[in-house]
Amino acid sequence: MKKTDLKDRIYRTLGGTPLTMRIPNQSSRRKPLLYYDGKTNREIRYASNQSSPFVEDQDENVIVESIMFVKGMLHVPSENSVLQHFLSIHPMNGKRFEEVDEERNASEQIKRMDIEDEAIHIAKNLKIDELETIGRVIFTGRNVSEMGSAELKRDVRLFARKNPEKFLQIVEDPNITMAGQIAKLFEDGVLRLRNNGRDIYFNLDNNKKRMMVVPFGEDPIETAVMFLKSDEGLPTWQRLEKELE
Predict the structure, then answer these.
(1) Which position has the higher pLDDT, 158 or 30?
(2) E-assigned strands of 14-99?
């Protein structure tokens, strides 16, 4: 580590706060402790009387010490640079523990707040027709046409506040208008889902056939958009558009 990097550091466990937690401080027969430096795997070991965490750089008089997190935390002073270096390249770093970085946390929080502010600002200034379009995509299963304007505004804003990244993704989707129209076709009963959402069927007086299969794990509306925009699906979309008039 560089001298400019030397400072007191605090580490915390991930995935819970155990009373105590030890992490491997050297290789064992079953689990070698290795660090890949871009060229080769190098064995590492924490020895308090050595200046390097790499075994190849250590002498024979090593003093191996345990590394213990207490109540989920571990404080390492700047004087113990070898442990800080060891922890920075430890295979469990980012998986079982991480360094507490308040500056990074603050930056991430500011970024999150900026995204929330942008989402709320956009949601606040949507016109009623835009609210209905977005509402139909967001609130699948609800009849947006039966929602009052105040109720729709409130619920869209609440969604934007709780799910700002998803909301911005929906708003910026170039297919949002078509997705809203397809959602309205479901809302009006022109299209219906069957077989636990795996199939989309027509529900017209003269057509009750299956329109398409929804791949497992895919969103029905997004899948329908992609199909109806294709050369194969375009004639079907032209027929369905008449149902929206």
Answers:
(1) 158
(2) 20-23, 34-36, 41-43, 67-70, 73-76, 97-99
The Cα–Cα gap between 94 and 117 comes to 29
Q: Which of 231, 234, 131 is nearest to 183 (CA)?
A: 131
What global pTM score does this model have?
A: 0.57
Strand ranges across the sheet with 199-202: 191-194, 199-202, 210-213
Tell how strand 73-76 and strand 97-99 pair up. Answer: unpaired
Among 194, 188, 200, residue whose Cα is nearest residue 224: 200
Contact 45, 28 (CB under 8 A): no
pLDDT at residue 205 greater than cutoff 80: yes
Q: Tell me the three state secondary structure of residue 214.
A: coil
185: part of which helix (H) or strand (E)? helix 176-187
* Structural domain spans, the chain: 3-100, 113-244
User: With left for phi above 0 and alpha for psi between -120 and 50, is residue 97 left, alpha or beta?
Assistant: beta
Q: What is the DSSP secondary structure assignment for residue 215, as one 8-state letter?
A: P
pLDDT at res. 3: 46
